[in-house]
Amino acid sequence: QVQLVESGGGSVQAGDSLRLSCAASGRTFQVYRMAWFRQSPGKERDFVASISRSGGNTDYADSVKGRFTISRDNPNNMLYLHMKNLKPEDTAIYYCAAQDTTRPGYGYWGQGTQVTVSS
Hints:
mainly beta; 0% helix
């Protein structure tokens, strides 16, 4: 089992920056790819960014390219999402997710952290 806990959300103004964190615990040695997803009210959960175990391979949704940066600190079992130039449309609950060797797809999810961007 892997447990994920997000933090760092909050209410900011458009153009501001914010850093989300995700602390992983449990059988983290089984975790390889990690990601951030987000969900706005009335919408489906959308992919935001993902990162390989080594950190050498990253992927981003077109809507956040150039503004968001995903990173991870493996020795400390942390995942980050650095967000800059935030827009009102970035308002959502942000979820951390992890893939491991025991479940298909992203089998582990955090509880989410709210990000609200006002214009």
